[in-house]
Amino acid sequence: TTSNFTAAMTAAERDAYNAAFPNRVAIKHAHSQQNPERDWGALTLRAVDLALYLLNEQFSQVVNGQRLNSFKADNVLVIAAGVGNGGGAALAAGEQDTAGLIDGVVAAMPNIQMAVNNNVSVRRGSTTLTGTGRVLLDYMTLANQLQPCAALASAVAAAPGAALVDATRGAARCAALKAQGVLQASTTAAQADEALAQLQAQGWQPESNDLHASHAALSGAIALTYANAYGRFGVRDNLCGFSFAGVGSDFKPAALAGLPATYGSFSGLAPSGGIEIINNNAVGGALENSRSVSATSGVADYNADGARCLRNLFTATDANAARVATGINEVRRTGNLRGKPAVIVHGRADALHPPSFTSRPYFALNKAVEGATSKLVYAEVTNAQHFDAFLGDASLAGLDTRFVPMLRYFNNAMDAVYNHLRSGTPLPPSQVVRTTPRGGTAGSATAIAVANVPVINATPAAADQISFASGLATIPE
After folding, report:
1. I want to staple 246 with a disulfide (CB 3.0 to 4.6 A). Which of 50, 51, 211, 256 is the partner?
2. For 100-123, what is the mean pLDDT?
3. Of 129, 113, 128, which Cα lies nearest the Cα of 358?
4. Other C-beta atoms lying within 10 Å of the C-beta of residue 58
5. What is the pTM of this model?
6. Neighbouring residues of 319: CB distance < 8 A, sequence distance ≥ 6
7. In the 8-state DSSP scheme, what is residue 389?
8. What is the 3-state secondary structure (H, E, C) of 12-60?
């Protein structure tokens, strides 16, 4: 009764589920049946209300037994800011803020999904993408299918973390995609090259090619968790034959040791904190997903059957796909920040939330919706990807020499918005920020210097400026 999250089921239903699927774990984001992303903006605004209340509780004077309401939205500077999902929440809050609680917004690499508007488009070089990007489940289920195969492509053979994708299982995924009609090539090498080319053709930037191996497990985990959330599926649904559990040395579901410690170490997204993704439909019985043998192929192919099922939840029209579509429509944003000063920063090489699906079309949508009242700045950073933590990961040695940290630009954007609100300093123009990789030895990059990570420029060169006109956002090469 004091649980932070308890799966919605009766005692009898729980007993029956535990008997059929022992040692399983329910995960709040996946199984709350609340579609939490729908409320990101509203909950961020509630956080501002709470902050103002606490400021008054701590610092306001008490007069005649009544505490004064000294700290209010009109005299407290509030910047809604976040990274990834937090960036999406900050933008959602900015859109939904009808009470003037928020003065400015900063979002880094936001997970943001937009209302459909095919009157806007984004062009980089010779490539133009029409509309407001792809929704998360679309691009995550696509990545989940293609990345285990694309990681074997000849062009990325030396990518950091390439060994994270097992060559035999990756080749089996390539063959499964061929059998499903997703790929046309006949050899593993050609299929892998085709899969990588598909990712790039679908909107992943060429600068992110070296990241697909390190992201392959992430895309599957995110696709599964968000499909559950959008469709409001419960733990008993075992969506697409998946579940979550601790595993033993044989990789079969086992009792999760140290559950209180898992509460502290779990990221909210399996695999993490000892919780693994389980393929209930594996040949020979339930097994940790990446090692399981698929019923269709009869080989270990990173569960191509499960990946196809998750993809169908976006592309199909059956009852489960309809449930998911309803949830996705609940999280689409309008692009209207109500004239608030805002800065979005995004790494060009981001392979998790590619800018072509998120920040670029959001910039275009905002400019189209707000017109001359828009105060949104978009800065796209070269040689930058989503996970700064990866730059110090020994298993991904080489990312440190190739990429610069994005946190630098989140802080830079915070400074820009703060200085604008506090001192009236003009916001910088939208632009591409040209960085210089550190170089050096993989795993031991040259010490970073200011020259590697120049700040967002108050007066960028014309060739670096991002522009918007007549429904088209133009991103310099």
Report:
1. 256
2. 98
3. 113
4. 8
5. 0.96
6. none
7. G
8. HHHHHHHHHCCCECCCHHHHCCCCHHHHHHHHHHHHHHHHHHHHHHHHC
Is residue 70 very low, low, confident or very high in pLDDT (cuts 50, 70, 90)? very high
> Is pLDDT above 80 for 277?
yes
Count CB neighbours of 339 within 10 A: 13
- Evaluated on CA atoms 88, 94, 96, 97, the torsion sign reads positive
Helix (H) or strand (E) holding 176: helix 167-180
Tell me if 261 sits within 8 A of 227, measured CB to CB. Answer: no
d(CA 247, CA 228): 22
| Class of residue 56 by CB neighbours under 10 A (exposed 0-12, middle 13-18, buried 19+) | middle
Enter the tokens of residue 84. Answer: 């990834």
CB 84 within 8 A of CB 354: no
Cα angle 372, 378, 384 (rounded to 5 degrees) comes to 175
The helix or strand, by DSSP H or E, that contains position 320, with its residue range, turns out to be helix 319-330
Residue 451, token pair as written in the block: 């020259």
Q: Which residues does residue 124 pair with via DSSP β-bridges, in sequence order?
A: 127, 475
Over residues 176-203, the pLDDT tens digits come to 999 999 999 999 999 999 999 999 999 9
Distance CA 100, CA 446 (A): 46
Report the distance separating Cα 313 and Cα 326, nearest Å.
11
Encoded tokens for 96: 């939904």
Report d(CA 93, CA 45) in Å as an integer: 6
Strand partners, 24: 245
Beta strand 276-279 with 472-475 is: unpaired
Q: Which helix (H) or strand (E) holds 128?
A: strand 127-130
Scan for tokens 């610069």, then name that residue. 404
Residue type, 12: A
Q: What is the largest CA-CA distance in the chain?
A: 83
∠ CA 358-361-367, rounded to 5°:
130
Structure-block tokens of residue 207: 């600068």
Helix (H) or strand (E) holding 108: strand 104-108
Residues 470, 122: Cα–Cα separation, whole Å: 11
How far apart CA 157 and CA 67 sit, in angstroms, is: 65
Identify residue 267 by its one-letter amino acid code.
S
